[in-house]
Amino acid sequence: MLYPSIDSLLTKLDSKYTLVTVSSKRAREIRENTNRGPMIERPVSHKPVGVALEEIIGNHLKYERITPLEEEE
Question: Is 11 a member of any domain?
């Protein structure tokens, strides 16, 4: 069984698309910048994507949806 499960992750985010976007951006940040390492103690996963998913499930990683401003005509 995978940890964390997709079902538990989707309780933290609104869609699978958001889950993929947030976790991939965080995994890239972990991989490319050693100063921005894991925000959790002793991650179960050794891969950056797994660590990012663990951060989401542990409420260490959040996102904010930005809505574009409507242009006035």
Answer: yes
